[in-house]
Design goal:
Blueprint lengths: L2 E3 L2 H4 L9 E3 L7 H15 L1 H7 L1 H12 L1 H6 L1 H27 L7 H12 L3 H21 L1 H14 L3 H7 L5 H12 L3 H15 L2 H15 L3 H26 L6
Helix pairs in contact: 2-14, 4-6, 4-14, 6-8, 6-10, 6-14, 8-9, 8-10, 9-12, 10-11, 13-14
Amino acid sequence: SHLLSLDSRLADTGKIDLNLKVSYHELKLTMLQKAFKSSSLLFRSRFLTILTIQLPLGILVLFQRLLDTYLEKSPILALLVLLPLVSIISNLGTALTYLLISTPGKMGTKEFWTQLSSSLKPKFNTLTLSSLFIAIVLSLGFYLGQAFFIFPGIFLISLYFFVPILTISETKQPILNYFYQSKRLATQSPKIFLTTIVLVIFSLFNEIPIRYLADLFERFFGFSLFSDVFLTILFAGWFDVFVCFYFLELRPKGTQ
């Protein structure tokens, strides 16, 4: 009687089949702790599927690394082409990760990917447009100079951090509705908004620790390019799972 579903709100509706159980005293955990526990369990149980979802991002990072020298000489090209592509692909990865969490785990592989594609298809255009908006905000920030605009840019992205998940989880609506709901969800308390800002900063600057670890791989094993790509996929996969569970923890108190 002291065992409850880790996310009983969704288990009761049949939307999630994770078979994750916690004892009564663990219900006192903070939202971040609950999201961390849930994401860690799911990441271990669906490891290959999660990495497969992030594979397009890994391929894009591979091309970026190969073209680093050229992109350094053409920063405008990086801002106008590479950044929008990264934004679109990473947001699609977040949306697919949410669908993975919402899909019964016992489903066959072919059936699972068919359901994911059919669920994503009607929302693809909205996800793409919202991703382009976020990319425009970032592009303006870097173009106008970090000292002048980077903090307002992070502030705006934090407000709209949950747009990809809302787009895929909600019924089809005008795109501005998802931005409004994300803003309402992220700003329901100062503590939640500060946490969201930290998550945004972490997602924007994760390349620094990834490059450092890749350099360590090169020093000890003689290669860094593919380790760089693999670490990017690994980080993006776990981070998306964590953000989706954090969203589920926030959801009952915010947008309905």
